[in-house]
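job 3f2a | input accepted
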Amino acid sequence: MKRRTSLASAALAATLGTGAFAQDTTKACFVYVGPIGDGGWTYQHHQGALAVQEAYGDKVEIAWQESVPEGADAERVLTQMAISGCDIIFTTSFGYMDATNAVAAKFPDIKFEHATGYKREHPNVSTYNARFYEGRAVVGHIAGKMTQTNKIGYIASFPIPEVVMGINSYYHHAKAANPDVELVVTWAYTWFDPAKEADAARAMLDQGVDVITAHTDSTAPLAEIAKEDGKAWGFGQASDMAAFMTNDDGTPGPRVASIIDEWSPYYVKRVGALMDGTYEQIDSWAGMPEGEVVIGEMNDAIPAEVQAEAHAMIDAITAGEYHPFTGPMNKQDGSAWLAEGETASDGELLGMTFYIEGITGEVPN
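job 3f2a | predicted structure (365 res):
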C-alpha cells in the first residue's frame, strides 16, 4: 500500500525541500506516500505542513520526503529523519504504521504521529485520522440523485476499514436518495497510480456507471470522466481538485463537489503543543464538526434542490445531529446490524471489514 523533502542532515538540506532556520527552532517533519503534486492526498497533507510554517514562522523548520514506499524504505527514511534532528515526525499513510512504531522505539525523545493507523506501541506515538465517511455520506446522496443510469461507482484503494466504511457510507446514502441505485466497486490496490486509477474509471464508465467517487490520490479518474462530455460526473478526493469544476467553455466540469481533508488545524495544534510544553499522546478522529472534513463548492451541474439537501446533511453532521451510520442497517448477508435509530460505535467502524446489505461482491482479504 502507498499513501516525499528533507532527509537526514543539514548537508542534504540544500538539495531537498526544507526550511533552514536557527538551531533552536522546532523541526517538524513529514513523510508522504505520494508526490506533493498529486493534487489529492499528499498535496493536502503538504498544505497542512505549509500551514505550520505560516503559523509559527522562523520558530519552526519544516522538512519532508515525498513518494516513500510503505515498508522497509519507510523505516529507513524515518531513521534518517530522526537522526537529522526532527522533533516531531508525521507519517501520513496507513502502511507506515509498523515502521513508525519500530523507529519510535529507538528514538523515545522524538514525537511520532501516524495518520489513519491504530497502533500506539510507545508513549511517543500518537495517531490521528479524519471521519472521511461523513464526506462519503454527502457525496453518496448527491450521486444517488444525479445518476441517470442508476449505476454509481467507487474506486477503492485497499481493503482496510477506512475504505470499507467509505464504500458503505457512500452506498447507504445513495440508496436512501435513490432506491434503484446499484454500486460498482473496483479495487485498484494502490493509493497513487494515475494509470491504474484512469483504467478503473474507464472500466466503470464502459459498464454504464455515470457517477464515480475515488478513494485514491490522483486526479486521473476525473480526467477520464471528463472525456464523457457531460454524461458522467465525479468528486474531488482529499483535496478540492477544483481545476475540474468548470470546463474551458464555462460549463460545469466533471467534478461536481469534493471531499477535502483539512489537516492544517491538527498539524498547527500538535506542533504548537510540542512548542509550549502541553503535548501529550493522543488518538484523534475528527471530522466535520472540527473542520477536518470539508465538502468543497458544488458546481451548477447539481440541481439546486439537491445542493440544498446536501448542505442540510452537512449542517446536521456538523451540529452532531446526524450520524451517517444510523440504523436500521443490515450487513450484506441480511443479518441485522444497527436497529432503528441506533448508531455505530467508533470501534465497530474502525474494525469494519464487511459490506452492508445491497452491495454485491466481496471485500477482498
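job 3f2a | Residues 1-23 have pLDDT under 50 and may be disordered.
job 3f2a | closed
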